[in-house]
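Q: What residues go here?
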């Protein structure tokens, strides 16, 4: 039997040797090891001990929130959290350090259960976002420990590239996009008049002509009142939108389900819904045919995998929501690689300056799944630190006619 002290020394020298082989000591050499130089074999043996030593959070000026988890093996994991309550998420994540520091990071699902169920109050955007970012970082560490991408630990691959939408582009081959119900102003009245409806239809028709052969979804963003949404979904039908997204807020699922019955265009929703329990009602009431959970809000990689399984029973695909940073996109791509019912990745064509190495380029409208260990990316910590600062403010919006509060 090798005692823990000898084993610890063996781990240190083995990891130091692997690190030295990649270049000079420091963050850059660590990044090379973790980003896939040792594909197929992790920097530690599966039976070796490893424990979490530190949890850190970083709030960026654009309101993105990152979490970094460090271990005594020199392996680090990165994740992202909800951007709206940025400082609250960052502070809340630090409280989880009391539970996580000193533990083996690899039993990710057990940690998910402990963080979620260990508190009296569960769910909600902030608590679930905290869990989501930590979950991503733990999967990042687990993959790096075993030298494989996270999707290989989740039963994948089911595909080797992900269909994306974003900005139509002949070079990348992207041929799908999403817009809001465009008019001279936002749809903030409780019931918009016929002039507004006709303007939205006219502008969408012009956009379709501008982009022939491009699938275009319409995102109501939960800011259109049901009375107006019921008019828009029928008026736009002849133009065959790709899907209608967040036709109303998801707080009253019955209203969404009622509107869904009035159109043959698929309804999509999910960016403000949390955990499998939130999506259960959407599926049971046929309120949406396309689910859009956000890996930063809905419970991380662990929970999106389960939501996908629930959706599969209803023949519903996943189109993960993603307006955020590189961990968000990379984690979403790990989900795309290990579920059968993946549809498309929002902003899957976006490139991120915070990465030490770029993602595999989009070609013919598809982004290849990153195959490096963990999330398959390496954060450039110097670039990230340059962006740390006071998050941008989300200001309350008002109706200019009567000064009443309107939806953001």
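A:
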């Amino acid at each position: 039997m090798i005692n823990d002290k000898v084993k610890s020394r063996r781990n240190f020298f083995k990891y130091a040797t692997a690190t030295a082989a990649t270049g000079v000591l420091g963050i850059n050499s660590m990044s090379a090891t973790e980003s896939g130089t040792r594909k197929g074999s992790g920097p530690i043996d599966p039976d070796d001990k490893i424990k979490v030593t530190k949890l850190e959070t970083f709030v960026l000026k654009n309101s993105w929130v990152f979490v970094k988890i460090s271990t005594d093996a020199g392996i680090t994991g990165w994740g992202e959290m909800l951007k709206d309550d940025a400082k609250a998420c960052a502070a809340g994540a630090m409280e989880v350090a009391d539970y996580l520091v000193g533990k083996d990071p690899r039993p990710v699902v057990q940690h998910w259960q402990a963080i979620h169920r260990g508190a009296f109050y569960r769910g909600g955007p902030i608590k679930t976002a905290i869990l989501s970012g930590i979950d991503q970082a733990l999967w990042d560490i687990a993959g790096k420990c075993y030298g494989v991408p996270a999707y290989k630990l989740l039963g994948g691959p089911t595909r080797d590239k992900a269909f994306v939408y974003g900005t139509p582009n002949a070079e990348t081959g992207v041929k799908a996009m999403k817009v809001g119900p465009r008019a001279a102003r936002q749809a903030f009245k409780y019931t918009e008049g016929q002039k507004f409806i006709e303007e939205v239809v006219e502008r969408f028709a012009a956009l379709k002509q501008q982009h022939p052969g491009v699938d275009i979804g319409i995102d109501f963003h939960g800011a259109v009142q049901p009375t107006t949404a019921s008019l828009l979904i029928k008026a736009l039908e002849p133009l065959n939108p790709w899907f209608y997204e967040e036709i109303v807020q998801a707080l009253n699922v019955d209203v969404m389900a009622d509107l869904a019955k009035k159109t043959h265009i698929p309804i999509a929703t999910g960016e403000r819904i949390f955990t499998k329990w939130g999506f259960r009602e959407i599926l049971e009431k046929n309120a949406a045919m396309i689910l859009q959970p956000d890996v930063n809000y809905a419970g991380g990689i662990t929970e999106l995998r389960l939501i996908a399984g629930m959706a599969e029973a209803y023949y519903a695909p996943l189109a993960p929501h993603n307006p955020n940073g590189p961990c968000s996109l990379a984690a979403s791509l790990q989900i795309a690689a290990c579920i059968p019912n993946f549809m498309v990745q929002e902003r899957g064509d976006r490139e991120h300056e915070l990465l030490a190495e770029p993602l595999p380029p989009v070609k013919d409208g598809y982004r290849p799944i990153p195959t490096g260990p963990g999330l398959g990316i390496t954060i450039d910590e110097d670039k990230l630190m340059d962006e740390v600062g006071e998050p941008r403010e989300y200001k309350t919006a008002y109706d200019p006619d009567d000064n009443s509060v309107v939806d953001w």
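A: Context that may help when evaluating the design: The domain at 154-371 is CATH 3.20.20.120 (TIM Barrel). The chain has two domains: 4-148, 154-371.
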